[in-house]
Amino acid sequence: MRIAMLGTGIVGRALAAELARRGDEVVLGTRDASQPHSEELAELLGEHSTITLRSFADAVTDAELVVLAIGGDHALDVIAAAGPDALDGKVLIDLSNPLDFSNGYPPTLSVCNTTSLGEQIQAAAPGARVVKTLNTVNVAVMTDPAGVGAGEHDLFLCGNDEGAKRHVEAFLAERFGWQSFLDLGDITMARGTEMYMPLWLRVRAALGTSNFNVRVVR
Amino acid sequence: MRIAMLGTGIVGRALAAELARRGDEVVLGTRDASQPHSEELAELLGEHSTITLRSFADAVTDAELVVLAIGGDHALDVIAAAGPDALDGKVLIDLSNPLDFSNGYPPTLSVCNTTSLGEQIQAAAPGARVVKTLNTVNVAVMTDPAGVGAGEHDLFLCGNDEGAKRHVEAFLAERFGWQSFLDLGDITMARGTEMYMPLWLRVRAALGTSNFNVRVVR
Question: How far is CA B33 from the centre of its chain?
Answer without folding.
Answer: 20
